[in-house]
Amino acid sequence: xxxxxxxxxxxxxxxxxxxxxxxxxxxxxxxxxxxxxxxxxxxxxxxxxxxxxxxxxxxxxxxxxxxxxxxxxxxxxxxxxxxxxxxxxxxxxxxxxxxxxxxxxxxxxxxxxxxxxxxxxxxxxxxxxxxxxxxxxxxxxxxxxxxxxxxxxxxxxxxxxxxxxxxxxxxxxxxxxxxxxxxxxxxxxxxxxxxxxxxxxxxxxxxxxxxxxxxxxxxxxxxxxxxxxxxxxxxxxxxxxxxxxxxxxxxxxxxxxxxxxxxxxxxxxxxxxxxxxxxxxxxxxxxxxxxxxxxxxxxxxxxxxxxxxxxxxxxxxxxxxxxxxxxxxxxxxxxxxxxxxxxxxxxxxxxxxxxxxxxxxxxxxxxxxxxxxxxxxxxxxxxxxxxxxxxxxxxxxxxxxxxxxxxxxxxxxxxxxxxxxxxxxxxxxxxxxxxxxxxxxxxxxxxxxxxxxxxxxxxxxxxxxxxxxxxxxxxxxxxxxxxxxxxxxxxx
Length: 492
Known about the structure:
Layout: H1 10-13, H2 15-20, E1 41-45, E2 48-53, E3 63-69, E4 78-83, E5 89-91, E6 100-105, E7 112-118, E8 125-132, E9 139-144, E10 151-157, E11 166-171, E12 177-185, E13 188-189, E14 201-203, E15 207-212, E16 225-233, E17 237-244, E18 248-252, E19 262-267, E20 271-279, E21 286-293, E22 298-299, E23 306-309, E24 315-320, E25 328-334, E26 344-351, E27 358-363, E28 372-377, E29 384-390, E30 395-401, E31 411-417, E32 422-425, E33 438-447, E34 450-457, E35 466-470, E36 477-481, H3 487-490
Antiparallel strand pairs: 1-36, 2-7, 3-6, 3-8, 4-5, 4-7, 8-9, 10-16, 11-15, 11-17, 12-13, 12-14, 12-16, 17-18, 19-25, 20-24, 20-26, 21-22, 21-23, 21-25, 26-27, 28-33, 29-32, 29-34, 30-31, 30-33, 34-35
């Protein structure tokens, strides 16, 4: 009998910390007996955010750029610092709206942990981008620094020969974190190594550990696997680093949590190979309808209109060159809307051919929501492309380009995205007179929901080196119930 992956509640119990760091809150007031409800809640800025960044590369010739920004404008006090294990500050923004950058060379660049408070906490964002020109790890590897959490899904990793896939686990806290990694292939749970008591991974306080996934399943060489990372105690930041011989390397961020419908935004227009990897972690099989949202509308890919996922088993679908010269986003919805089975998913994307290929990944992403930011955009010609997809209804979006890390003035543009389409903003707004990397911040003004991704392309010797980062609501505010005044106390 095959084993199925359980849907855990671990992420629910740590939602705030896992998504945006921490906010210091009071418990909601109880609803008065016989009353219709408690006092209305107010949206308040978070007071503290936590981020972790994995160690960038094991290559001696790696060149890494770090960037960080808190969106918004100055006013008030706050601090933000990303630190090495030894306590050295690598990135230290001073005020909202002004990005900062740093660089590191070689394999010694460390993992980073840090926190922001005050006016620098709401929406604090950081990114690391690594370029490796030659060798086994060749490629452009980009990943956003993440909030620590307790539950992560990585559809699209591999234990096959020719792949070097690692999960990086970074513990930002002063206590030990205990982590379990389960792997699911096309026949279900890979038994023998993952999920057993002797494979619990201990991550020391304020340190990082990377786990070679093939070492967890030495007898299973599988091209496409789903990894489920959970913590039994503590919390970690988790990202998957992928290396594929002869193709390239990049990071695979965690998919958004299991959901009945998913959007995988920003497939590059010139993608030569696109493969969907999906997984249904519950007890029920899932049947999904596929749509490609392009510039003029949504279509079903010929021959790939639907995909069937057996519960607890990783499924793949080769979409080939599905975009056919026009950037788009893949939208997954239940074939039967009355039976929405939660799933996770990611895309393996290749650009170029032969010895000039490069690899990237696009996980299913949450909507932009009220506001979302991706840093480390470049003003170089055609280096940065922005893709916006609206589902549900037409959407109006404000796009703000921050100043550059070396100066310049912010720029703002408002765009309308038609429902069921993907709008490619190339080039997106860039800072006037700015130099250095800059950040793009999206705000949904009306309609939607909107899903978005940024593609950064830095060609090298004919290789279209690229990386894709998705946008997700920065959860810079939280709902705080208004205080209740007890009349009995006031008149005592």
